[in-house]
Amino acid sequence: MFDPNHYVHDQSYVPPINRPHAIDQWNDRTPAELPLVEAWKSAVPVHAPECDADSTRLYVPYDALLVERAGVLRTVLHNDGRIDLNGLSTCPSCEGLYDPLRSSGTCRWCDAPLPTRQTTGGVTLVRGGER
C-alpha cells in the first residue's frame, strides 16, 4: 500500500545540515567520494520507522541511511535492514533499490536498462506504450 509519508521532499531539496555531526558520520561510515549534499539528492526516499526521523533516504552504493528530523539533516546511519521496501524495486543488474514510479530508462546506480513492465504496491507500471 502507498505510504503518503514515503515522499516528504522533492529530490532537489536538501535540508540544512547539522554540522559537523552529519558530515562527520558521512565521512566515517562511507568512502565519501561525493559530498553529503549530492548523496542526499540522489538517494532513494525510504520509510524507516525505527530511525526516529521525519524523512530518510537510502544512498544505495554505501547502504547509508540519511536521516532528516525537524527540517535538518541530522546524521548518517548504516542501513541495518529495518527499512520498509514497499513500493521499491530492485535493479536486475546491480540489485540496487529504486522507485519505479520516479525512475525511467536506466538505473541511477549502474546505468543498466530498467524493466519496462514492473509491479509495485499492487499496481503494474508499463513504460513505452505496451499493453
Give an account of the 3D structure.
The protein has helices spanning 21-29, 36-42, and strands spanning 44-46, 55-59, 64-69, 72-78, 89-90, 97-98, 117-120, 123-126. 12% of the residues lie in helices and 25% in strands. The two termini are 24 Å apart. The strands form three sheets. A four-stranded antiparallel sheet has the order 1-2-3-4. Strands 5-6 form a two-stranded antiparallel ribbon. With 131 residues, the chain is an alpha+beta fold. A hairpin with a 2-residue loop joins strand 3 (64-69) and strand 4 (72-78).
Keywords:
131 residues; alpha+beta; two-stranded antiparallel sheet; 8 strands
Helix content: 10-25%
Q: Give, in spatial order, the strands making up the sheet with the most strands.
A: 1-2-3-4
Radius of gyration: 15 Å
Number of strands: 8
Helix and strand element order: HHEEEEEEEE
Instruction: Please report which band the strand proportion falls in: under 5%, 5-15%, 15-25%, 25-35%, 35-45% or over 45%.
Output: 25-35%
Structure at a glance:
The protein has 131 residues and is α+β, with helices and mostly antiparallel strands.
In terms of topology, how is this protein built?
Layout: H1 21-29, H2 36-42, E1 44-46, E2 55-59, E3 64-69, E4 72-78, E5 89-90, E6 97-98, E7 117-120, E8 123-126
